[in-house]
């Protein structure tokens, strides 16, 4: 069967990458990566024709760089980019060859994620495949009731007062949909 | 920046608060949240505004960041409502655009306006809410992001000039798993400092002055992290 963007995404976004990641701790948070060799292994398992091509990087006045690559599966392709970062997510000025190599691997994995592999890491750091609520469903019963109310502002105020809406319990993305 | 011709054939430049950092100081990214005042950057901004050179389109790598911010601005508003347990107004489709026409009161053929469109306002008009969704949801600013100071101070300045008695801005740094909120109290010294630089830029736009090197602000500012971990 011929590969399509949809079929590739459906295959790769369902891969469980638990145990194939590493975590980097920085001042601004912890980031989980899919290790590049696992990404390559998984990709080759499903799509042995995969090719990675490197595009012209962008360099800036301050000596920092953005790497760009293209991952191809036959006719299908995705292009991704990544600054040459240090391990604290700061762009490196005048990066060395080893800095560039490390970030080429990260850039490749990130571009592979555009096909779906390990994309959930970028959502929330989880390694299990994630089904997103893309149709905008509201699951919280309190928010559902508010969305049906004729006087939303009054109902929100009431729920804020009595604890039906509460920081830590109420999902902000769902709440935003009814505002 | 927008340039528009008004009905009475008065031409105006419009300085938006989101770009006050560029007009006033030419702030340029250095590294890890550090910015510096670049005269070159300010000169470049001036050339775009005067139509001497064309502002380049946004770099393709930046577009997803902007789109992410636009998509989740309302989540930041929702967060603020949940944390403060109070509704706010003038958010989302009801955002208000505040403009001070001819802010230097020159009454000439070409004038400069200043404007702002805050993300939200408290019901009693005392507080503005500004949402920033950093790093496409993967991280928060470790410190207060000072590059937004000209914008939020400018927002307060404009609303107060319009007799809306805003006393503080809550800057909400939102991402899906954690958020921070900083409170910046109105600071008239800083406001005057900003006014001086904006005024200088406006006069240059009008051909009445030369661009001068911006001055560093040395005084302490009252900025408190009021929600989230340091």
User: What low-confidence regions of chain B span 5 or more consecutive residues with pLDDT below 50?
Assistant: none
Note the main sheet of chain A: 3 strands, antiparallel
pLDDT average of chain A, as an integer?
A: 90
Average pLDDT metric of chain B: 89
Number of strands of chain A: 5
Helix fraction bin of chain A: 25-40%
Strand content of chain B: 25-35%
Write down the overall geometry of chain B. Answer: globular
Largest interface: A-B, 35 and 33 residues
Major beta sheet, strand line-up of chain B:
5-8-9-10-11-12
Give the tally of β-strands of chain B: 12
Judged by helices, strands and strand pairing, the structural class of chain B is alpha+beta
What Rg of chain A do the Cα atoms give? 21 Å
**What are the secondary-structure elements of chain B, in order, as H or E?**
EEHEEHHEEEEEHEEHE
Notes on the structure:
The complex is a heterodimer of chains A (179) and B (230). By secondary structure, chain A is α+β, with helices and mostly antiparallel strands. Chain A is built from 7 helices and 5 strands, in the order H-E-E-H-E-E-E-H-H-H-H-H. In chain A, 38% of the residues lie in helices and 21% in strands. In chain A, helix 2 crosses helix 3 (97-113) and helix 5 (141-148) runs antiparallel to helix 6. Helices cover 30% and strands 26% of the residues of chain B. Chain B has helices at 20-25, 39-49, 63-84, 149-161, 188-205; strands spanning 2-5, 11-16, 27-31, 34-37, 88-89, 98-100, 110-116, 120-122, 127-132, 168-174, 179-185, 223-227. In chain B, strand 9, helix 4 (149-161) and strand 10 form a beta-alpha-beta unit. In chain B, helix 4 (149-161) packs across helix 5 (188-205). The A-B interface holds A 26-29, 31, 58, 62, 64, 66, 81, 83, 88-91, 93, 122-125, 153, 156-157, 160-161, 165-167, 170, 172-173, 175-177, 179 and B 30-32, 59-61, 72, 74-79, 81-83, 85-87, 91-92, 135-142, 174, 176-178.
């Amino acid at each position: 069967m011929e590969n399509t963007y949809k079929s590739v995404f459906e295959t790769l976004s369902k891969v469980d990458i638990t145990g194939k990641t590493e975590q980097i701790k920085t001042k601004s948070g912890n980031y989980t990566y899919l290790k590049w060799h696992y990404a390559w292994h998984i990709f080759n398992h499903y799509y042995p024709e995969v090719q990675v091509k490197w595009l012209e990087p962008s360099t800036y006045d301050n000596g920092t760089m953005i790497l760009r690559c293209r991952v191809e599966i036959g006719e299908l392709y995705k292009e991704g980019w990544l600054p040459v970062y240090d391990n604290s997510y700061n762009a490196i000025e005048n990066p060395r060859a080893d800095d560039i190599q490390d970030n080429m691997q990260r850039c490749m994995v990130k571009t592979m994620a555009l096909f779906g592999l390990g994309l959930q890491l970028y959502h929330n750091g989880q390694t299990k495949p994630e089904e997103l609520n893309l149709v905008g469903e509201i699951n919280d019963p309190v928010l559902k009731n508010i969305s049906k109310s004729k006087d939303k502002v009054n109902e929100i105020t009431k729920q804020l007062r009595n604890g039906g809406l509460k920081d830590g319990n109420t999902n902000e993305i769902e709440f935003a949909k009814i505002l | 920046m927008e340039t528009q011709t008004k009905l009475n054939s008065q031409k105006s430049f419009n300085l938006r608060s989101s770009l006050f950092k560029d007009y006033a100081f030419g702030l340029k990214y250095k590294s890890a949240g550090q910015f510096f005042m670049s005269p070159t950057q300010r000169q470049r901004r001036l050339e775009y505004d005067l139509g001497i050179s064309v502002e380049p389109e946004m770099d393709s790598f930046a577009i997803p960041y902007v789109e992410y911010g636009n998509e989740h601005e309302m989540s930041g508003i929702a967060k603020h409502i949940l944390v403060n347990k109070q509704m706010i107004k003038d958010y989302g489709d009801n955002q208000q655009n505040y403009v001070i026409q001819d802010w230097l009161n020159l009454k000439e053929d070409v004038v400069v306006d200043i404007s702002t469109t805050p993300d939200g306002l408290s019901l009693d008009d005392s507080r503005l809410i500004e949402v920033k969704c950093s790093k496409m949801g993967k991280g928060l600013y470790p410190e207060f992001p000072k590059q937004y100071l000209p914008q939020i101070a400018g927002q307060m300045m404009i609303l107060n000039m319009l007799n809306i008695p805003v006393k503080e801005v809550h800057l909400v740094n939102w991402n899906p798993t954690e958020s921070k909120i900083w409170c910046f109290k109105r600071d008239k010294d800083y406001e005057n400092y900003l006014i001086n630089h904006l005024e200088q830029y406006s006069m240059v736009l009008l051909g009445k002055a030369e661009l001068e090197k911006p001055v560093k602000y040395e005084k302490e500012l009252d900025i408190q992290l009021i929600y989230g971990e340091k």
